[in-house]
Amino acid sequence: MIRLLLVWLINSVSLFIISKLPILGIEVDTFGRAVVSAAVFGILNATLGKILQFITAPLNFITLGLIYLVINVLIFGLAAKLVKGFRLKHGIVSAFLGAIVFGIVNGVLLGILLPS
Which of 25, 46, 105, 116 matches a 20 to 30 Å C-alpha distance to 8? Predict the structure, then answer.
């Protein structure tokens, strides 16, 4: 349970960090909104993301895994639609760049703070 809370906190920090990069066009009003956004993103990823990954498994094979990026972009955009105070300034472009940079920043922070 503590690990889950730490991952949630790291996701929140990652989201807050990428919101401070002006080129991405991702806006998060406060750190509290980043916490809520990370929770919504995590819940969507754990439910809708898994369903979409299962449905698109044959496409994943054909696209060499790029369909997972598309799923993450969709979930990132949906989380921004659902949480007030979390906006994508440039629409799908911000969602695409945000999903990639979020994955990188989150991976680095998780690797440093929660090694296996």
Answer: 25
Distance CA 74, CA 92 (A): 9
DSSP 81-110: HHSTTEEETTTHHHHHHHHHHHHHHHHHHH
Give the pLDDT confidence of 68-91 residue by residue, as tens digits. 999 999 999 999 999 999 999 999
Buried residues in 17-43 as b, exposed as e (16+ CB within 10 A):
bbbeeeebbbbbeeeebbbbbbebbbe
**3-class state of residue 11 by DSSP:** helix
pTM of the entire structure?
0.90
**Rounded Cα distance, 89 and 13, in Å:** 20
Question: Nearest 5 degrees, angle CA 13-CA 100-CA 71?
Answer: 105
CA distance 102 to 116: 20
Segments in the chain forming alpha helices (H)? 2-19, 31-44, 50-55, 57-62, 66-82, 92-113
List of residues 6+ apart from 59 with CB closer than 8 A? 67
